[in-house]
Amino acid sequence: MHDLVIKNAVIYDGSGEAPQHAALAVSEGRVAEIGSDVGGGHEVVNAEGLALAPGIIDTHTHYDAQVTWDPWLDPSSRLGVTTVVMGNCGFTVAPCKPQHRAATARNLCNVEGMSIEALREGMRWEFESFGHYLDHLESRGVGLNVACFAGHSSIRTWVMGDDATERAATPDEIAAMADLVREAMAAGAIGFATSTFEGHNGAGGVPMPSRLAKQDELQALVVAMAEGDRGTFMLTRGSGSRLSFLESLAEMARRPVIVAALLHNPLNDQTTRRAMQKIAEANSRGHELYGQVSCCPLTLDFTLYNPYMMEAFDSWKPIMEAEPEDLPRLYRDPELRAAVKAEIAEPGKITAFTGDWSGIKVAEVANPANRDKEGRDTADLAAEAGVDPLDWILDFGLSEDMKTTFASVLLNADSQAVGKLLSDPYSTIALSDAGAHLTFFCDAGFGLNLYGSWVRERGLFSLERAIYEMTGRQADIYRIRGRGRLRPGAWADMMLFDPTTVARSPNLRVHDLPAGASRLVYDAKGLHGVWVNGSHIADAGGLITNGALPGMVIRKFDS
User: Fold this and answer.
1) The whole model's pTM is what?
2) Range of the domain at 344
């Protein structure tokens, strides 16, 4: 007698092959049998012809802090996700010495848009080393399967202290960092992650530590990661990171290299195209590189207190360094405004904001007398006023005590161009950023968006291809053993859904973080069940949390 039988399902096994109408049996957390007659089960679910697929593997999340107080990793656990990879961009909470905890929290508050009040109240600092962090997660339990990168910024801070954000490392410091990478890999890291992106700044606009690393440091750490013939190197690329150098790392380490974030920029379309072409050329030479792309438009809500999208601009640094009470004076400074306008006009810089002011709308005004401006784009409003769009946004925001909420569509909005990126043989679909930027946007349901918007509505992929992209292919690239496919012996990570209705709901703002901090979330549509290692964790009504935590901290990976 099996533990669970799901009968009358259309089973997409995660391989990309055509589905079969069959039953699936689960015993001891693993798929036991698939066929027309699999015997009985202690629990039997009639799928009634719905699609049964592997659970989504989300390989770009930032749940490193949230998981210490929320082992269910909401909202991903109710959006079809069964496995997450944390620590992307190298922004981790371990290793971390006690004297660095406050600074780490402040940095996460800025670079990942997290509430400092939520971090102060919610974080459980019951670890120091990377291995202790994984032990801590295992001892508490996790609702989803979790894999963790060793993070460059945390490793650099452990070795260099405050100097990590000030200078290049010495040879001795690089050697010490390499030892920490080796320790993390031995403890069960999925790989090593870093960032050189100019928009990744910590508290006060100070660059995140990884941005100070020179090529010799990156090379030493990637080689250390690969010494056991395993590990994936992940980098969020800044303007100075050449694809030729990243290819040399792939060649030297003989490990996969993930390059983020390749998003379509309507004002500089050639940049992403050239990057994908160079990645294809690297693969033709036998060097495994992938461009990490998104199936969602990059959108965010902001006020003048937190205009994250501008932080890649050097001219914006005085604003990032300022105390809140000094912001109005700086926003009125004509010289600062002129410098920002000039930098936005410069071609070739990798930034979140492209200079397309028509993509920024007034979402919510603070003064009811201004309701007529809600929903309108700032380019039109500025044209009507006869002023530059930057000046209009700053002046209008200041007139409302910086309480105006603006909504922006920054990148990845052109469906035709995005479809080409998603279809590229060397792209990998991810970039949900789940667990981060909680007050700005939520893309944790990116997989549901792929199945609904790109498969059903646009017809870009067959459903079996889309499921493969979200499951089996992610497991293959990251060498995640026994997941991503429904076949006998594999772990029973599954989602049951209706392909005719699957989607994500509109954003909802809730105030359920520690200290009552707010975040954006959404609900699943057309999702009827989620199982992690054979345990039922969600249904059409949302998350089910009345049982034991069924997830695993994944610490072993294929070579």
Assistant:
1) 0.91
2) 299-410
